[in-house]
Amino acid sequence: MQLIVNCFVPWQDGFVMLQKPRRGWWYLPGGKVEDNELWRQAAMREFSEESGLQLVDATLRGIYRVQVAAGPDSTAKDRIIAQFVGHGATGTLLKENREGKLAVVKADELAHLPMDEGDRLMVQHTLAAETRGTSVVFFGRFTYDADHQVQSWTIDPDNYLNSV
């Protein structure tokens, strides 16, 4: 099982996202946890490496299991994504890095970005919790077909996006 961390960071009336050139999809900055590295430190390191911004701290917002079916030219993948919210960002946001192009995304733009639909749901939940000022931690599971299309998903607490 692969462990991935990413970090949602509010910045200049929006939040930082990265567009990777392979599919043109947008993601929160993040990456793999290195051996003997703690998850929170990995999220802060990955975010800083990819964005150019430094963080004072980060808090856990969600843990998601992502399973992708094998395809004719790919093996099945089983991942845990630990999503954090970064705090106290300072510095100058890079325009791009080795991974792709960086931008500040406004909340109302999220629904229209080309994205992995599971990632969109994760970010929507984090954005809703940040907007409400709650400390909820989400737990979820996503299954994908070999073409990386969401087949099923669940996030606990359920119905969070529709609750007041």
TrEMBL record:
The keyword Electron transport does not apply. Gene3D superfamilies: Nucleoside Triphosphate Pyrophosphohydrolase. The keyword Endoplasmic reticulum does not apply. PROSITE patterns: NUDIX, NUDIX_BOX. The lineage of its organism: Bacteria, Bacillati, Bacillota, Bacilli, Bacillales. Pfam families: NUDIX. Keywords: Hydrolase. It comes from Alicyclobacillus fastidiosus. This is NUDIX domain-containing protein.
